[in-house]
Design a protein that fits this description.
single chain, 463 residues, alpha/beta, Rossmann fold, six-stranded parallel sheet, 13% strand, globular, binds uridine-5'-diphosphate-xylopyranose, binds adenosine-5'-diphosphate, EC 1.1.1.22, UDP-glucose 6-dehydrogenase
């Protein structure tokens, strides 16, 4: 079977870039990305390409080329489902904030709504592809909804987890380490898997396209994210020990990274990992393990999140302690708010939690981030419900000018590793700050020696 029409439900950080790359690489396939969020779709269709709602290096060029040719963005979900042979589900699956599994399990209500909508609209056989990160055995639930509420048409469910990292999404999609496709093990299952393999084979080497059963595929995604997050928590745990013993965590990371069994990537100590996936996926894993009575397995993985929370809190405490045990009324400038560089995504960003802790200490926070809007920063804080919106508004100020934002600050905290921070005129920044002028480098990106020479009190992570 050759796929001619693809529909993707969900025009977010996963659906948007993934479909842009499929459309760009497969001009013969019509790709329609739908979303219930009208403002988001409007932004994807904006004539000024720089207004598309997701910032990813290289994405604008791909969208510019494919949009209107074979890539379309629409709010007409039903029409797109009806026309497609293959439907990707890329809706959000946040951690549940209520009821059973609160704070741990993934909230599957958006997924279920999609499945029900597909079932009610479909008049021809469909291949449904899970793209969102999902707990193991979700495919089974989707299949059950489709088979029991549909009008007799046949559905094949595939799991095709997304491994792209934000900030490098386009490169990750164009040159993936691997593409994983899980599906049914009968003839129809194989046919569906093959249909998706043929889509990717337009630009990915066939040796890099792995096919498995659907549960292995679902669990592989959670496992990959758990292992990656565990590496960050492991190096962050060592960073605290380094600070006590006089070792330098960058030197330790370099030394262990040269061991080919360990590898050098993903060993940067930081103020803590963020992003929509790591914490959610691990909590999900913990929930699944507990639900099977595997308490040791659950506790083992939960520790990765506990360590990450500790690292964020420790950064805030360190600022307070260093500033003579009080930040009340002091201006603390945050450079960066996004959870990593080259994205405007702020979900679970360490900056939010560090700001919250410092606001509790009555600090005045000033923020500069090259890609995050002031409304987003305020809404991230409001979402925590620690204090009223008015109080957050009073405690936080956002400035579009990196030099202005540092003026009269007692301390600067680097929360995101944006490259531009390294190139600033740090002498000029120093001259306009309160003295002693402190820099807390939560990403170890600045030249500490140079900053000390200028006169800063410079504190990195794990050194
Ligand atoms: C992650 C996975 O990498 C990706 O495969 C999956 O599809 C989605 O989740 P993402 O969250 O977009 O991707 O970014 P990633 O590069 O993994 O970074 C996650 C967090 O870890 C960021 O906050 C980053 O700053 C932090 N990190 C990463 C570190 O603190 N140190 C490191 O060495 C690496
Ligand atoms: P991700 O990082 O997983 O892509 P996002 O939150 O960026 O998550 O994107 C998910 C998108 O899915 C949102 O734009 C949301 O409006 C959309 N969405 C959620 N449920 C539905 C639905 N039933 N139909 C269409 N779009 C949906």
């Amino acid at each position: 079977m050759k796929v001619k029409n693809i529909c993707c439900i969900g025009a977010g950080y996963v659906g948007g870039p993934t479909m842009a790359v499929i459309a760009y690489k497969c001009p013969d396939i019509k790709v329609t990305v739908v979303d219930v969020n009208e403002a988001r779709i409007k932004a994807w269709n904006d004539e000024d390409i720089s207004n598309i709602p997701i910032y990813e290096p290289g994405l604008e060029d791909l969208v510019a080329e494919a949009r209107g040719r074979n890539l379309f963005f629409s709010t007409d979900v039903e029409k797109a489902i009806d026309e497609a042979e293959m439907i990707f589900i890329s809706v959000n699956t946040p951690t549940k904030t209520y009821g059973l599994g609160k704070g741990k399990a993934a909230d599957l209500k958006y997924i279920e709504l999609c499945a029900r909508q597909i079932a009610s609209v479909a008049k021809t056989d469909k291949i449904v592809v899970e793209k969102s990160t999902l707990p193991v055995r979700t495919a089974e639930a989707i299949k059950s909804i489709l088979d029991n509420t549909g009008n007799g048409v046949k559905f094949e469910i595939l799991s095709n987890p997304e491994f792209l990292a934000e900030g490098t999404a386009v490169q990750d999609l164009l040159n993936p380490d691997r593409v994983l496709i899980g599906g049914g093990t009968d003839e129809d299952g194989f046919a569906a898997i093959n249909a998706l393999v043929e889509v990717y084979a337009n630009w990915v080497d066939r040796e890099k396209i792995l096919t498995t059963n659907v549960w292995s595929s679902e669990l592989s995604k959670l496992t990959a994210n758990a292992f990656l997050a565990q590496r960050v928590s492991s190096i962050n745990a060592m960073s605290e020990l380094c600070e006590k013993t006089g070792a330098d965590v960058s030197e330790v990371a370099r030394a262990i990274g040269m061991d080919s069994r360990i590898g050098s990537k993903f060993l940067k100590a930081s103020v803590g990992f963020g992003g929509s996936c790591f914490q959610k996926d691990i909590l999900n894993l913990v929930y699944i393990a507990k639900s099977y009575g595997l308490h040791e397995v659950a506790d083992y993985w939960e520790q990765v999140v506990i360590m990450n929370d500790h690292q964020k809190r420790r950064f805030a405490v360190n600022i307070v302690k260093t500033l003579y045990n009080t930040v009340s009324g002091k201006k603390i400038t945050f450079l960066g708010w996004a959870f990593k560089k080259d994205t405007n995504d702020t979900r679970e960003s360490a900056a939010i939690y560090v700001a919250d802790d410092l606001l509790n200490e009555q600090a005045n926070i000033a923020v500069y981030d090259p890609k995050v809007s002031d409304q987003k920063i305020l809404s991230d804080l409001n979402y925590l419900e620690t204090r009223s919106e008015a109080e957050n508004r009073e405690g936080i100020e956002v400035n579009q000018d990196p030099y202005e934002v540092c003026k009269d600050a007692h301390a600067i905290a680097v929360l995101t590793e944006w490259d531009e921070f390294k190139g600033y005129d740090w002498q000029k920044i120093y001259d306009n700050m309160k003295k002693p002028a402190f820099v807390f480098d939560g990403r170890n990106i600045l030249d500490g020696e140079e900053l000390r020479r200028i006169g800063f009190v410079y504190k990195g992570i794990g050194r």
